[in-house]
Design a protein that fits this description.
The protein is mostly helical. Helices cover about 75% and strands about 5% of the residues. The N terminus is likely disordered.
């Protein structure tokens, strides 16, 4: 092989890898909500030309990770009060429907694959890597959606998971005494959901999902509605 061919092989673009990288950077908040994305800078960083990058950005926009604004540029999808409100409104419905269908449809091979995602989440939790934990939690719930196999619900689940993961970054990165136990319970919920899906136990899968969401919602509430400084000080004194 000539040097020219070798260089060409090295520069071969893997769009799937770049998509995965950008998705991960967005859900782990390495790319902050509302941040402007400079195409020239991304091209240099990702070693990709403008045309394939724009194809990737269009796909990310269709999935809800970014917003392409005409004559203004490209931005990471924003996250504000309205985002959190809509998350609270729709998450229980979507997560429950996805779990119900997953319990109805799952094959043994899919259950095994879901267990692998849970194993990665558990290892991330044990290593106390918040970024890795949030990423693998996202992968776990995304794969439940794959098992559910519903073309109408999957786009909604994907969009929901983006903001759920980003909000998760806010409260999991805050040190609280009860946080370790909450993480362990989240992992137990995953294990129980896998068992329910494997047994095709629809009602149990839905019930576990609702409890899992309720705990997550509680954490979000703690972050967006913290105790006042005075209340926090009084609690310590008491």
């Amino acid at each position: 092989m000539t040097n020219s061919n070798t260089n060409t092989a090295k520069k071969k673009i893997n769009k799937s890898d770049i998509l995965s990288t950008l998705r991960r950077q967005i859900i782990t908040m390495e790319l902050r909500p509302g941040a402007a994305l400079d195409e020239a800078e991304l091209c240099a960083k990702l070693e990709i030309s403008r045309t394939p990058l724009r194809e990737i950005l269009i796909l990310l926009s269709s999935e809800g990770y970014i917003q392409i604004r005409e004559n203004r540029g490209t931005f990471v999808a924003s996250m504000d009060y309205h985002t959190i409100r809509r998350l609270f409104q729709t998450a229980p419905m979507i997560y429950s429907a996805i779990s119900r269908l997953a319990a109805e449809n799952a094959t043994s091979q899919q259950v095994d694959e879901l267990a692998k995602h849970q194993s990665r989440f558990s290892k991330a939790m044990e290593s106390q890597s918040i970024e890795s934990m949030i990423y693998h939690n996202d992968c776990f719930h995304h794969y439940v959606g794959i098992i559910a196999d519903n073309a109408f619900l999957m786009p909604s689940l994907k969009r929901l998971l983006i903001d759920h993961a980003r909000i998760g970054n806010t409260f999991w990165n805050n040190t609280r005494a009860e946080q370790a136990e909450e993480m362990r319970q989240a992992s137990k919920d995953h294990d129980q959901l896998i068992a329910a899906i494997a047994d095709h136990d629809v009602e149990t899968a839905v019930e576990i999902t609702k409890m899992h969401w309720h705990a997550s919602k509680g954490n979000i509430n703690k972050y967006i509605m913290p105790d006042s400084i005075v209340e926090a000080d009084d609690s310590k004194m008491g």
